[in-house]
């Protein structure tokens, strides 16, 4: 009997040992919530929505006016409540056209633009809506306490949005470029783990050259290609610094500008970037888990493309130069719910005429070089700018 009791006790003891009991499932690390970027198909224009792992939403640009019919319901599908921030990279119609209706239909808590004055009726109307509907109005103004530092906006779970350009009034806007409005586009880098997205607006070659003089790490997994793939931007030195694994070009099918140009496609190919085009592939969805980015175009049967992240450090790679030199970055300054004072738009010389080519949605100054190359096309002539704006939008070539 004693032996039986001893055997029973030994059995119970052995059964209780962890090595002989059923092994519990191995503990799995939680999968990080994704960072999602939607590059919308808005025709000849730009619009991208950032949704952070914590649900923070940032809309960068709002496409041309004709895009709002599709963009508003799409944003309502993706966004719960008002947008946390709208960034207008620069005041051109193909970037701001849908924003007024988006603000009225979806809502926005904050609005930021470069504060670059532009004589556009559509821009003025947008600012009126912003002043009435948006709680905070911001500009990328440097922090006077630390003017050399880059502004970094936290979006939760380690996601940051760093503003690289512009930074007035400490550093003046770029002037006498092919298009000063383009040259002073807001440039921002979105970073999550080892992955990053670089948003470049319609940056000009002068913008890229200035940025390259700064001690900044431009390495980015995904590049939103500047100026819809126009030949003047995306210079070889800039692409060599960015080292994009993928490049998204937002442009319209059969657009008047020939975007994207062969020169830019060649330069992107030379750095090994995989190219996605909204005119061919529609909306492009990019999802980052902090280590890789998966890009999925809406159109076509191509499988999702996974590209590795290669970011190894913070955006700033060293101290900024002294105040005597041009630097990049800035601090967002709220304007107490009202727009800052804007200077009056420059006046146009009296007698200036404006011309639109047959089938085109834009108008040019009469002395624009584009018109010289299209002498055989039918054209509509406007004797004043107001008449032209009512029917067309300003061309970017001559910024009429």
Key phrases:
400 residues; ten-stranded mixed beta sheet; seven-stranded mixed beta sheet; 23% strand
Share of β-strand residues:
15-25%
Which spans have pLDDT < 50 for at least 5 consecutive residues?
Answer: 10-22, 318-350
CATH superfamily of the largest domain: Ribonuclease Z/Hydroxyacylglutathione hydrolase-like
The CATH first-level class of the largest domain comes to Alpha Beta
Structural class: alpha/beta
Share of residues in helices: 10-25%
**Please, how many helices?**
12
How many structural domains can be distinguished in the coordinates? 2
Q: Give me the count of strands.
A: 21
Overall pLDDT score: 82
CATH topology term of the largest domain? Metallo-beta-lactamase, Chain A
- What overall geometry do the principal axes of the alpha carbons give? globular
- What kind of sheet is the major sheet? 10 strands, mixed
Radius of gyration: 26 Å
The end-to-end distance, rounded to whole angstroms, is 107 Å
Could you characterize what this model shows?
The protein is of the alpha/beta class and 400 residues long. 23% of the residues lie in helices and 23% in strands. Helix 5 (121-133) links the parallel strand 5 and strand 6. Helix 2 (68-78) runs parallel beside helix 4 and helix 4 packs parallel to helix 5. The longest helix has 15 residues, at 2-16. The termini are far apart. Residues 10-22 and 318-350 have low confidence and may be disordered.
Blueprint of the fold:
Elements: H1 2-16, E1 35-39, E2 48-51, E3 57-60, H2 68-78, E4 85-87, H3 93-96, H4 99-105, E5 110-112, H5 121-133, E6 136-141, E7 151-156, E8 159-165, H6 180-183, E9 187-192, E10 195-199, H7 205-212, E11 222-224, H8 236-242, E12 246-249, H9 262-270, E13 274-277, H10 278-281, E14 284-288, E15 292-297, E16 305-308, E17 331-334, E18 354-357, E19 362-365, H11 369-372, E20 379-382, H12 385-391, E21 393-394
Parallel strand pairs: 3-4, 4-5, 5-6, 10-11, 11-12, 12-13, 19-21
Antiparallel strand pairs: 1-2, 1-14, 2-3, 6-17, 7-8, 8-9, 9-10, 14-15, 15-16, 18-19, 18-20
